[in-house]
Amino acid sequence: MNVSATHFAPTSPSLAGRAGAVAPPMISVAALAGVPAWVRETFGDGVLRHGNHAAALDIELIEDQDCFIPQATMTSFLYEVERRAGEENLGLLLTPYLTFQTYGHWADYVLAAETLRGAIDRAVSTLGYHTSGDRMELSVVRGAARLSYYNATRGRAGYAHVAVGTAGVLLDLIRSYLSSDWRPELLTLDILRPRKAAPFEDAFLCPIAFEANAVSVFFGARFLNHSRRRHLRTGHLTLEDLARQRFNPTRPCGRIDSGIAFRVPALRLV
Fold first, then answer.
1. CA 122 – CA 120 distance, rounded (Å)
2. Which residues have C-beta within 8 Å of that of residue 233, sequence separation ≥ 6?
3. How many H-runs (helices) and E-runs (strands) does the chain carry?
4. Which domain holds residue 19?
5. How far apart are CA 48 and CA 38, in angstroms?
6. 3-class SS at 217?
7. What is the structure's pLDDT at 142?
8. 164: domain CATH number?
């Protein structure tokens, strides 16, 4: 099947047409599903309101609609929550509550694969249905596998939490085909080494390396042939189904201006 580029994360035709202009990276709002509720429960309504204000978006209003938002919205939200809550390890606290399965129709398609290798291949080849600007790759050398994720927002304020969350979601994807207590041989993060690294190893229960060029999970290639351990109600979702569901023009996503951002009600800080 030939899939049109318009089936992927939207970019702005108006921006792309300007000399030297580059459309901002986008991501499905499903990546933040449940996060606002967790922030409210953990830090209170005030912190959540400030996070929404910094993001210029009430994420909770659209988090179940599988629509796209600028990736900068996500980092701005997380950075402001970190600031207001005074919690530099926000990502570590949040990661246990993040799962790959919450990533909407794209996750359904990926997890419909029979083996871990099949799921990773699907994720790599169809990442554009979830995000633009990011990249994912699998390499296998002499029996050792490395699954890497390159985030477009690397280096932005708040990105450290995105990196940690990405690591957690990659591990959850792999554990969907292995066991819930499976651990990698090594996990790398593309963030500066923190003042205290112990909390990271305590959270992931494996060796951690910082200042890498990507978020990567290292593990034995033998695991790639493992079949899915969780029974998921994904049905027989095809790539054509994914394209139709992702870009059904009747879905209530809220208004998107030029493919760049959502118009949402004005936010108030109390």
1. 5
2. none
3. 10, 9
4. 10-263
5. 9
6. strand
7. 94
8. 3.90.1520.10
